[in-house]
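Intended use. Records such as the IS30 family transposase entry shown here are meant for training and evaluating sequence-to-structure methods. They are not intended to support clinical decisions.
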Amino acid sequence: MIAQKLHRSKATISREITRGSVTQLDSKRHSHQVYLAETAQAMHDRKRDRTGHYAFLKTGRAFFKALSRELTRKPRVHSVDSFVHFYRDQGKACPSTTTVYRYIDAGLLELDNMTLPKKLRRRIKGYKNAHKRKNKKIYGDSIELRPAAVNDRTGVGHWEGDLVKGIRLADEPALMTLTERYSRTEIIVKIPDYHAGTCLKALQDTIDDYGAKEFESITFDNGSEFAKLSEIVGTQIYFAHPYSPWERGTNENANGLLREFFPKGKSLRAVTLVEIQAVQSALNHRPRRILNYLRPCDYYRCMA
C-alpha cells in the first residue's frame, strides 16, 4: 500500500524501514521495532560522509579555501578545472573537476554558479548555409590562401583577430583582440572607435611595438572595420569568409572568455589601460586543458 502511494518498489520501502528501525521498550518492558525518519536520515548522512565524494568536504578544507580565493580574485586567473590541475601538480590531494562542480551544484561550498564563469560555453558551429551572401566583398587575401603551416598549427606566429565591443556604436571604444593560434596567447588593445582607419593604425602600432617577427600572419573577420588592413606593413593579413566566425574559432573562444570581464552592453569608455593589461595577463597565465594545463605565456615562450 505504501509502495503504491509513493510510486516506489516494495524493496525500496523495505530497505528504508530497515534502515530507520530502532528497538524500543514499552511500559511492560516488551521490545518492539519502530521506524523513525530521523534515524533513517542520520544513517544516510553517515554513509554519505564516509564515501569518497563527500569525505573530501571535511579533509580538503585547505583546497576549498584556496579555490574560493582564486575564483573570486579580480581579475580571475584560474577556472575550476585549471585550479584543480594546478593544485594537483603541487603534489596535493584534491577532488576532480566534476566533483567540485557537484559540490557547487549541491550548495555545499561558499561558491555558487552565479559567481563562476559559464561551465559550458557556446560552440561556434559551421552551418554551411547560414547567412551566405555571395556578393559580400572580401577586403584582401582570403583565408583560402593561407599556407598549410598556418592551418596545421605547426608553430607560433600565426594569429587571429577581431573586435570586442561594449556598445555597438561606431564612435564607442572597442577592444582589438589578437589570439595566437598555437599557444592561445592573447593581446588586447583598446581603440577609441572602430572605424577602418582607427583599426588600421591600432594594428600597425601593435605590430611595431611587439616586433614584426612575432606576426607571421593574422586572420581577421571580414567586417567593414577591417577594410584597410590589407595596407598593414610587417605581416600577412588574411580574411575569413563572410559570416563564418568558426574559421577564427581560437579568437572567438578567447573573446568569449573576455566577456567575463567586459560584458556586452556596457560602455568601455571607463576601462583603463591598467585594467586591460591585468585581464590580458590573467588570461595568458591561466593553465589551459588544450595545452595540457600549461600556461599560454609559457607555451609561447618555449616555442618562439
